[in-house]
Amino acid sequence: MAADSRSDRYSDSKSMSSLFSTRNTMPFKSYWILAFLLFSVNRCFADDDHEMEEFLKREYSLSKPYQGVGSSSSSHWDLMGDAMVTADQVRLTPDMQSRQGAVWSRMPCHLNDWEMQVHFKIHGKGKKNLNGDGLAIWYTKERMQKGPVFGNRDNFTGLGVFVDTYPNEEKHIEAQKKRYTPRTQRIFPFVLAMVGNGSIAYDHERDGRPTELGGCNAMVRNLKHDTFLFIRYIRRRLTVMIDIDGQHEWRDCLDLPGVRLPQGYYFGATAVTGDLSDNHDIISLKLYQLTVLRSKKEEAEEEEEITIPSVDNLDLLRLGEVEEGMSGIAIFFTVLFCMLGFIFLIVIGLVVYSHWNESRRKRFY
């Protein structure tokens, strides 16, 4: 690596020296154009890599050996429900029916930009689609409140990222002897995100479809390698990625701008089981503070204090989902109108041709 670094610096210095050696022969205008291009390239690389730094915030992080979690007053985390601490993980629920558990941060987070890396494991004896229900990672105003949304309260205020392992809507449709269309059917487990303002309910029967911001399928059960979830909030942009293939590579799941989350909320993780069950384990929650260089325009835009969680252009997002769901009907009517238009053109053509043929015969008389 050192040799490569030295060779790179040598190449750079050689390039710069050649640039300045030709300075006398290069036209003045061309020199400034080249200098501007070099400056622009440097800015692009700076925007991608060098303008952001991350720092682990231990007071908002949970990792081994979990000293005092849920029992010591010096711990930054509380346990709730059926959650328990072992040497290897914080087990939110055991592989037993009708259990729910949680771990919540005691300290509110006042960071502008942050990144949460979740090391988790979901495993149990149940076969595919015979397990449930899933776990959730939270950044919310409320904490330590039991409820139906993966072990947390409904009508929450803040952000929820859900790892849903049971297809409630699909089973409900199958019970009615209906079928999914290929466009709307999902493969479970499924990761999705939702922002609530305190009055929006999570639709459990439809697996959160009406209020979701987006998501992706994630086959996370009973894997022998580690599984990770990545949540980043920076410049009012929410990004969710997963690493579940054992390749140490992040895969995109959700990337949405215009997400407005207030400061001073709490991080937490919850899980729930019903008639079906799984072990839902948290191995670590690591929160990083992101230090980001902002332009004056961005600083001016973010001076406004956010008091209620919201998502910009949420109606347009919902409209896009409706249009996607109606695409089959839209294709049918498009084909129908094209066929009618084609028939109409043929009829017009025949009428015009008959009039032309009749007038042609009249010229011969």
TrEMBL record:
Cell compartments where the protein resides: Endomembrane system; Golgi apparatus membrane
InterPro entries: ConA-like_dom_sf (IPR013320), Intracellular_Lectin-GPT (IPR051136), Lectin_leg (IPR005052)
Xref: PROSITE patterns: L_LECTIN_LIKE
Bilayer topology term: Single-pass type I membrane protein; Single-pass membrane protein
Gene Ontology MF: a single term: D-mannose binding
Location, primary (coarse class): membrane
Signal peptide positions (record): none
Residue intervals of the L-type lectin-like domain: 54-290
Transmembrane region(s): 329-353
Gene Ontology BP, a term: endoplasmic reticulum to Golgi vesicle-mediated transport
GO cellular component: COPII-coated ER to Golgi transport vesicle; endoplasmic reticulum membrane; endoplasmic reticulum-Golgi intermediate compartment; Golgi membrane
UniProt keyword list: Disulfide bond, Glycoprotein, Golgi apparatus, Lectin, Membrane, Metal-binding, Signal, Transmembrane, Transmembrane helix
Name listed for the protein in its UniProt record: Lectin, mannose-binding 2-like a
